[in-house]
Design a protein that fits this description.
It is built from 20 helices and nine strands. It is of the alpha/beta class. Among the domains are: about 90 residues, Fumarate Reductase Iron-sulfur Protein, Chain B, domain 2; about 110 residues, 3-Layer(aba) Sandwich (Rossmann fold). The strands form two sheets. A five-stranded mixed beta sheet has the order 1-3-2-4-5.
């Protein structure tokens, strides 16, 4: 990798963790067995407590910036399970995002991380380029042109991008109760059109007029999680302008990672941001019109259950569907190993974590596994494909609920 500086981490910036934030860790160890990387390695250095200790020492000048240190920070999924279970209130999400930013500032970039960062900046921040890449990939998949299709074990089969309705407003079904803005996101419209279609239909059924602001871009979550805080800031400014053009009651998000990022890092919008299922469970849906006779299990997305603390609403909505048999799998709230682009940059650890997930998932014999984040959906699809278990479908939660209407 080539490290050239023996430099303490400065952890600067408006929301950077202070010494006080770091010292909230009282080393109790209650988080250890919830941490996916500790669970598979059993190593203190791959645990939340170990990583907090390393970053604290580094910030205080007690540890140099070494490849060893970087490896332990890189191997963290950023899933924030530790933050959710910590009795001491350690703000781990902020600590690791700034730790990553420091690593990116100091390390001599390796070709892989440079490529990932360049690709993110060139594609995710530019919807037109991303759609063109999606169309190329779709064509390559249809014609089985392996040279045209990016070689990735996680890439799903593409079916055509989601497009907002003419006039960029979808009317409510029945009486109008709310006017909501909808975050299209970067990968969701390209990879998971049916999820967006189902989400908008559910919002209309709940009495929402749904507005799709023109000029909105990727929310910047993937940038921030990978240490590119400057890239994330640029996108935040663009989006705050786009969503500021008209009035609305709530900003609805159907991707856990984006919802969490918007709530934490968009001060002008944060209080109006709602996860789709948090919102639907609160405002209610009409009586389901038909049975959905499926055996379904649910994988919590880390940024829904841990970062946003939304655990009950998705289960409550699933259980309200007539004919649907809900089965809870063990460790549903433990990360699947996707974690944004973690499965691309740390494939070995990601696969070890996924293997445990597949065991838990398959042991409850579902027909469908649902989740609420595109990264989790891709990872679960890839895990089932690799095991020849494609008879188990992976769906976005909105699709399964919308099937009852
Ligand atoms: S992060 Fe929280 S739970 Fe984990 S060791 Fe520190 S204080 Fe305990
Ligand atoms: S964010 Fe996840 S992987 Fe990282 S230390 Fe916390 S629990 Fe472990």
């Amino acid at each position: 990798m080539g490290l050239d500086i023996r430099d303490p981490g400065t952890f600067q910036g408006p929301d950077a963790p202070s010494d006080d934030d770091l010292s909230t860790c009282v080393h109790c160890g209650l988080c250890l067995n919830y941490c996916p990387t500790f669970r598979v390695t059993g190593l203190e250095t791959e645990s939340p407590r170990g990583r907090i200790y390393l970053m604290t020492q580094w910030k205080r000048g007690g540890l140099p910036f070494t490849e060893e240190l970087v490896r332990h920070i890189d191997l963290c999924l950023g899933c924030r399970t530790c933050e959710a279970v910590c009795p001491s209130g350690v703000p781990y999400g902020r600590i690791i995002e700034h730790g990553r930013a420091e690593v990116e500032r100091l390390r001599r970039p390796n070709p892989k991380s440079l490529l990932v960062r360049q690709t993110m900046r060139q594609l995710l921040g530019h919807p037109v380029r991303l759609q063109a890449a999606g169309a190329m990939t779709r064509l390559g998949q249809a014609l089985r042109l392996t040279g045209l299709v990016p070689q990735s074990r996680v890439l799903p089969r593409l079916t055509g991008a989601y497009r907002p309705p003419a006039g960029r407003v979808a009317p409510p079904i029945g009486e109008r109760r709310f006017r909501v803005a909808f975050l299209l996101g970067c990968v969701m419209p390209i990879f998971y059109r049916p999820a967006h279609e189902a989400s908008v239909k559910l919002l209309q059924l709940a009495g929402c007029e749904v507005w799709f602001p023109r000029g909105q871009r990727c929310c910047g979550a993937l940038f921030a999680h990978n240490g590119d805080l400057e890239g994330a800031r640029g996108l935040r400014e663009v989006n705050q302008r786009a969503f500021g053009m008209e009035d609305f009651d709530y900003l609805l998000v159907n991707s856990a990672g984006c919802g969490s990022h918007l709530k934490d890092f968009y001060p002008n919008l944060g209080t109006r941001v709602r996860d789709l299922f948090e919102f639907l469970a609160e405002v209610g849906l009409p009586e389901p019109r038909q049975e959905v006779p499926l055996r379904v299990t649910y994988q919590d997305a880390c940024h829904l259950v841990h970062a946003q603390r939304i655990r009950k609403p998705p289960r409550q909505l699933l259980k309200s569907i007539p004919g649907l048999e809900f089965v809870e799998m063990a460790h549903a709230d433990i990360c699947c190993g996707s974690a944004g682009i973690y499965n691309a940059v740390q494939p070995e650890m990601s696969e070890r974590i996924l293997a445990e997930k597949m065991e838990d998932l398959l042991s409850v014999q579902p027909q469908v596994v649902v989740t609420a984040n595109p990264g989790c959906q891709m990872q679960l699809e890839a895990g089932l494909r690799a095991r020849g278990r494609q008879e188990v479908a992976v769906k976005h939660l909105a699709e399964v609920i919308a099937a009852a209407y």
